Amino acid sequence: MTLVLLCHCSEPKDTPNQFTTGQLPWANTENTTGEIDWLQEKLIDARQKYIIEQYEVSLDAYDPGERLEHSTITQLAIDRGSFSNRDLFQFGDELFEYHFRPEDGWGSDRLDDGPTLRRVHREKKGGPDSFSCVDCHSKGGIYGASSISQNSYFSSDGNSHRNAQVRSAPHLLGLGAIEAVAAEMSNELQELRRSGIRTATTSGMAQNVVLESKGVRFGRLMIERDGVISESSLEGVRDDLIVRPFGWKGEFSTIREIVEHSFRVHLGITSSSFQEKIRDELINGADYGTGAWFDIDNDGVSVEVEDGMLTSVSVYLALLEMPVIRPPEDEVLLSQFSRGKQVFRELNCHQCHVPTLSLENTTLSFRPTQSVYANSATIEIDLATEGESPRLQKESSGDAFAVHLYSDLKIHDMGATFVAAQPSPTECTSCFRTPPLWGLSHSGPYLHDGKALTVDEAIRLHDGAAKSSRNEYEKIPPEEQAALQVFLLSLSRMPSVEVR
Amino acid sequence: MLRFALYFGLSLALIGCPRSIEAESYFLNSEKAEGSAAKTLQQQAEKALRMRDIRRHIQLRTPMNPTYLADVATDVARELSAQDTLPTLEVILELGELLFDHEFTVEEGMTRDIERIGGHDSNSCASCHWQSGVAGSGAVVDNSFLHSESDQLSDYDSLNPPSLRGVGIVDLLAREMTDDLHEQKKQLMQSTSLGVRGAVMLTTKGVSFGTLQVTESGALDYSKIEGIDRDLVVKPFRWKGTTRNLEDFIIESLISHMGYDEYSFTDRREIFLIWLLASLPPPQFGPAKSYEELIAEPRSPRGELVTIFEEEWINGSKIFEEIGCASCHLTKMPLRSTVFSTKPTHGVPGLRYDFAERWGLEFSAEDNAYVVHLFSDLKRHNLGEDNSSLHYDRGVPPKTFMTRRLWDVANSAPYMHDGRASWISHAIAEHGGEAEQARQAYTNLPEEKKAELRVFLMSLQKKASVVVR
């Protein structure tokens, strides 16, 4: 004690010390890219959205259900022509962020104390594992990717996480362009098949048709004189020649399909069109629940998501902005970026991650799928004029639009080490659709299961069809590896501005 | 022998020490005028965009130097240690915000061994604390799975990441409460003599923690204390109230979620994270402020007249008290001091800062204290069988939980420890145990009164801010 008192030799320093402002290495960071103007514009929208939300939250607190009611539209109402595409976008936007409740049809299996959350899915029945879309699509902004904690655990028994298929959620920018490109590719491939059959049967000579669309080769079709087709030489596309650009394994061809699926497996919200398919025995209802066809998940709510809601969420997602490439402003980094861009080609990354696919027709159409809406008008949107900015841009030469997605939308076998062992004898477990790399800067962790925390790790985990590129990558000097990463991390998106 | 050597060394160190421990505590400077929390949306947006650019600056440098941000943190920590050129509060907060958002690399101390269920489950704070901006709550998919190593998810406790706004205030409140309780214990010990029984009602800031007794033999009898451990330390953090202060909370989180190994790096990143979280202003309170922006827009976008539920809000606030919610979710707590401080650690001196203006708390002359609308009593309660966790956590039984702070309840869905309730009504219905009566009272309310209570609850939220990602 005495010792402590003895050395109480100076007073606490309460006087201000010298500033060291400016010592952080980024102190002089200044935005010179025009994003300040973008910010001004987006802030107006974001503020408006905040006001609506505040209003809706209080209304809903006072009168439960108001909020969902205001963002729910039926296909019937859409058919009456009451809504512009912009309106549909807004409805979709609201639904995207709405937290669903049991009384809205959220969850499955009615229990005394309400439906339960299931972080690990049960086979095809799914979770529910979340309350809203934005729960897993928020990284780098709304409609972004999932963060490391937000992976999904699919196709297990509802409890064993180690047997589940782990999947990271991608960002949702540019989906409209991807759907449109894939549809054109599917049409072209099918046209090649049709003309092949025509030629074979009329000429009486077997045809060896090379399937190529937008510079991407999908193998060959052997067509006999009698029109019999051998599909054994197909590559990266299924027998139906439909290019399915969505889902890590290329399971879905349209935004609508993936929206329907996500509502069902993540939120336990079954669409009316899905119920119809069970009724008509196109789908085995027993795989999806124990209820009657009109309430297959047996939660006591039969109308959960009507076709109109699927339409509005799909239109919303299709009209979202395109990612951007933002080269660094710093000179040293800029030279790394340019070098990285070359390395990307030198290592043949671009063979699968095709930088640009061209798009002829920017019109996307949406058709309801419930039978009652068989006579509904098709909703059409024009990505080039109606989309959120930044929009699709035309290629420097010609009339086509350039979709800089960095993918061939093809399925490749990525090798045994790429994927955790999954007992699934009917399909190729290591086959994956080339994921688009645009917007990569805001979508880590990488790969289907989010196993790679950095771009470097992601590259090193490539195997199978990408093995030689990976080997080359491992051989180049660290500066070149870093340059490639700088290039890839410049595949970015515009700032997402929200008022919260 | 070893012990002697240690004492001897310590004495020498004390003799040779140029300053006392207190002297190693510095007030931080703020570069700008106070009240910087009250920036316009436009100013906030520009700052947020700048932070985005800085994050990009860091991201693009990480391929060449995987410890880029950690190195900067080390440099600033070194400046802090040098003590003559203290960085300003703004520099510390900026670094804190960047570290909060940063995805740590293995080179920076992040583990390679990631196991989402039951293991080190994240590489970034913001991964799970993101809803409505910096240090918000997590969605239900961000839940952490703890206290098991099983193959079966149902063996784990699933815990939803809570909002971290205002935790600096929570830290200070808990410290003051602990001091009060310890003082009461001390007085009890001093006032009783051997052979005489004694007792003190442990009360601080209007919260009763039961009775502490002294037996005739002079032993302390803790059997009548409530909602607190025998150490009489108020532990406001984590769902079961097991962590005593912000500093421990952050270090524990870095260790458990990211596999932070305290020997593996020296940047003292927790200092910056502590200061960032401590600086966050408390959520707002009251209907007028919440609807400021609505008032500016007299019509809703759909053309309907905006109803401002001011009367309902006032009624709701009364119902909140009447039906007993407020007995645990205490609406007001007095805070004596707004000076936040960190201890000296690993060469970094103790730091202090008075957050009075930044936090914007209202001062009550009557109580001679700042008023904190915390909506918690910082006490543990039995929430009933249905809410039970599977496991004990540091001695806290399954049914027992720390009262959740409701001050930003509108921003922190989903509710309850496992995030089972997506909406406020369901959250109320999930209350049991000590809250059973209040739940019953809510159930028995006429619909319009329930509506008023919900309007009140859904007004509890953070101030509007711009988030740029």
Short description:
By secondary structure, chain A is an alpha+beta fold. Chain A contains 14 helices and 16 strands.
Can you give keywords for this protein?
heterodimer, A: 500 residues, alpha+beta, three-stranded mixed β-sheet, three-stranded antiparallel β-sheet, 16 strands, 33% helix, globular, disordered N terminus, B: 469 residues, 35% helix, 12% strand
Low-confidence stretches of chain B are 1-23, 33-37, 288-292, 297-305
Element order of chain B: H for helix, E for strand: HEHHHEEHEEEHHHHHEEEHEEEEHHHE
Strand order of the largest sheet of chain B: 1-9-8
Distance between the termini of chain B: 58 Å
Largest sheet of chain B: 3 strands, mixed
Q: Output the strand order for the largest sheet of chain A.
A: 1-2-3
Largest interface: pair, residues per side? A-B, 107 and 116 residues
Helix proportion range of chain A: 25-40%
Number of strands of chain B: 14
Helix content of chain B: 25-40%
Main pleated-sheet profile of chain A: 3 strands, mixed
The coarse silhouette of chain A is globular
Content of β-strand of chain B: 5-15%
Q: Distance between the terminal alpha carbons of chain A, to the nearest Å? A: 53 Å
Beta-strand content of chain A: 5-15%
Radius of gyration of chain A: 26 Å
Rounded radius of gyration of chain B (Å):
24 Å
